[in-house]
Amino acid sequence: MMRKKIKSIIAIIIVLSTIFALVGCGESKKTGLNDDTVTVVWVMEGDEPTSEQYDKVWKKVNEMLLEDLNVQVELEFLGYTNPDNQKQLRLASGTNDFEMMKMGGSLLAQLAPRFAFAELTDELLQENMPLMMKALEIDPTRIEGGKVDGVQYAIPMMKTNISNSCVAIRGDLREKYGLDVPTCKEDIYEYIKVIVANESGMMGLQKSLALWSFYYQGDVSWGALTGTDNYVLFDATEECNLFMKYTTEEYYNYALLCRELKEAGCWSTDAINDSRSAEDLFESGLTAAYFHNVDTCGMRAQNMPEEWNVEIYRFGDCGDVASSPSASTMVFNPNSEHLESALQVLDLFMFDEEYYNLIQLGFEGENWEDAGEGYYRDLDGNLPETEQYKGNWYATWNLINKDFERRNIENYTGVNEIFNKAQEEGIVHPLTKMIFNSEVIPTEKAVIWSEISRYANALEFGMVADVDTYYKNLINALETAGLDKFMAEVQKQAEEFLKN
Amino acid sequence: MKQHRTKTTGKIKSKDRRRFNIIAVTILSFASFICLLPFVLIVAGSFSDEMKVLTEGYSLLPRGFSLDAYRVLLKNVDQIVASYRNTILICIIGTVGGLFVDSMAAYVLSKRDFKWRNICSFILYFTTVFSGGTVAWYMVLMELGFRNSFWVLVLPAMLSFYHITVMKSYMLSIPPSIIESARIDGANDWQIYIRIIMPMSKAVLATIAMYLVLQYWNEWYNCMLFISDKQLYTLQYYLYNMLNSSATLKNLIADATTIGLSHNAVPSQTARLAMTVLAAGPLLMVYPFIQRYFVRGVNAGAVKE
Amino acid sequence: MGVCWLKKQGFLYDLKKYRILLLMFLPTLVWFAVFEYAPMAGIVMAFKRYNFSLGILESPWCGLENFEFIFRSGRLGKLLWNTVSINFLFLVIGMFVQILLAILFSEITMRRFTKVTQMFICIPYFISWVVVGSVVYNMLNYNYGFVNTVLVKLGFERFDFYSNVPIWRYILIFFNTWKGMGYGSVVYLATVTGMDSEIYEAAQIDGATIWQRIWKITLPCLKPTIITMFLLSMGSLFRGNYQVFANIIGGNSLVTQELDVLDTYIVGAMMSGTNFGMSAAASMFQSIICFISVFIMNRVAKKVNENSALF
Q1: Which pTM was predicted?
Q2: A38-157+324-409 and A164-320+431-437: same fold?
Q3: SS3 sequence, B31-70?
Q4: How distant is the Cα of B135 from the closest Cα of chain A, in angstroms?
Q5: Is any Cβ of chain A less than 8 angstroms from the Cβ of B139?
Q6: % of chain A residues with pLDDT over 70
Q7: pLDDT above 50 for B137
Q8: ipTM
Q9: Domain residue extents for chain A
Q10: What topology is assigned to A164-320+431-437 in CATH?
């Protein structure tokens, strides 16, 4: 008994001492700066890059900021696990431990009407973002994308991105089977079918949403309404014509096409649960085609063997519609004490060319050099588009400003041409900058979304033999869920938006 | 203990015993097989060549042996070591603390003559059905200053009604006569708890210890919500983060070239599996230590003392 | 502690009488107060239109608006039926397998065999649902899945799991049972371990067979634990383990339509981000039906065995 007692006492001592040792661990942050130096914490998604380049750039940025504003910026990364969930909780907790946060369009649309963000009044912007105000004198609509119900909550990216949907195919295989250079979308589908029929072990494509974009873009000029998860579309050739994606004839035909491709064996039945990424499969030569926007297609093509001779195409005569600048914005913590400093910092990041280039591309002359007319040439082989640092392109995407934006001059063959053509033909519709406030009719939205999640996948993976009946069921379900009421609200908000 | 066991088994009718053993061995072998099979697939997959896994799926033997997945994952050795350290620490502290508090509560609730026994049980039970939701919970913890604190990984997960109830129902099966005789000797509740109940509850303590260890070992959610300091990441969160984002892995591509991988062959499927092996492997070795408490008669000595 | 000399029978008297027990219970009470009861205020969010700047308590009331979406779908009946039936099968089959394993482990005499198999069947618990999902995919895949490869080698036809909807109910039950069996059997094993071994010896002297022993001694001894565990699981009868559905069925909406449970419906509705009010409402709705069912079952359990009731 005695020995046991001693044992347990020792155990308790060990536990206690580890506990005390650990308490010291948690607290040791923020090293000695001047007392009046303000620290601005910027919360963003993703993981902190571990490269030296990243450290170097942000050290330099902070040095510059210390001199210009007596401010330091601290980056906080949320990781890739449920970032939206984390953001909502952070905002709800009323904490003041961060100043600004990167925010996507759909979450912005959802949280802004519930007063989650600091309101950016005109005085605040005038006082703290002089560079931006100057830029806005030329085109005041540039910050429209940050407004919800007429109130400015966010600073959107300063660029209307023309979304362009392309396809990348294997040139070597196309030639092997004697197919001509494709001139329309049908040729591509034909190519895929031929490959699947003849190349054993190859899939047609890894099914994703990108096929839908490819299917309709170019034939019609449709844009997506922010705040509806791309479910509500509008026709950019008309003034105010909004509709639900699933009720269009195009969607029905798309469902038929999917069934046809599935029947032809372009993907297997189990594709619906396949977690392998379309990128991986295409790059490994397991799929015949890859659908995405031109830059991403180009990036993949660059990674692939040269003898595969990857070709990138875009079809259709209708111009693509600009996607919303609200897709990536910066919002501010209403409880922060340093709102002004945060705005000043953002002003420099987005509208001061020196800061801008440093953050987006790295050190001039060391990492990149000017190649004229909005292009840069990569010097050390680290392209910003590859998601690695230089700049951690993905994380700082919301800072993009078209005045300073540069593209890589050494993109994959044809990429820059397709891109430029799409930009020229692109249509910028006022509704592009609208953010739909669904909080007015939350019930309808929730039920409609749930019905879509229940029906759409099976159609789009071509798993249903009787497309007709199944499609009718989907439409019926949407109507019971209150589609009319939902679309009426969409229409109403859009008309109001266009009036102002 | 051993003597006791041999005595029991020795007397059983051998024919009967043999028939039982055959059935038991068949069932258990089958169960082990279906449990082991996926794990073998995972281990084999983690050592496979990424391309082969993409084209042909998992198999029982590694397809085209390759250590790429581990090489990529273990690139960030410091982070892995720190994560292991944190996880082991929260396991130890959380399990010891949880066992102690849980068992005290269970003892109290198992006292038949404790007047407020039912009310207390109900207070605890109520929380398993109704809860205020993540938002309010998050706010309370933030208010208490748990952000970026080690304790947020330990405290909020320490107790559970489930564990208390399992212990309680075990303690109820301890013959009341033993407790009564101690009481007559003048022992108070604390002394009874320490001297009699605890030694007699080894099996259930081992059970709950195992549950707690597993729970803390798998801890990632609180880490995700409250921890931004990488030094405090738990292993599971670090791995989970990896699992959840091919993009995270793509970040590692930058370094992949330096460790001799071609860009195409950056493992993401196999890395997923390697992470499971890294997370589960060490814990599987703990199990045998707990196991020895699951043998009949382990408490027999305590009863007779 | 026969305390007959103190006549007072009030609250204060009890407080003094039970002071040690209460002190022992205090840490638990504090923990539950802080981590469970303090956040309880969040329940009111179900009746509020949540406003970030006003916080939980100050946000404006909105009546039952947040609950509407649960009833609006028009398939609440099917949702409830699916949830209960699938969870009930999870529960009953899971428990049966766990108890069976516990009894086998406790009776079998081959020590080394027991040790090894015991460890093996605990393995699935270590594998996260995400990985289970990809293992399932790789086992059932039509072209190169493990199951189909074996079938082909044995001379059978390939089996297309993914367009065979009814089979998924059993796949779910199988993997749910598979994942929890080792972990769950430990509780029963501990109870068997703790049983009074004198009864066993007595039984052997009487010449009882193993089967009789299991039937007449082990099972009755396990009864309180079984009832308790059953009641504990009842609390989540209306709350599916969303992870199982999300990772095994995934996006397969053909299957989801058949096996739609409350949780999948709710998650589908919240697809574009969580609405705090609605998720609170959904959770409250589930809590209430769980609570009612557990309350009734607990009453029944009390009649059967006073000690195995939860409260």
Answers
A1: 0.87
A2: yes
A3: HHHHHHHHHHHHHHHHCCCHHHHHHHCCCCCCCCCCCHHH
A4: 6
A5: yes
A6: 90
A7: yes
A8: 0.88
A9: 38-157+324-409, 164-320+431-437
A10: D-Maltodextrin-Binding Protein; domain 2 (3.40.190)
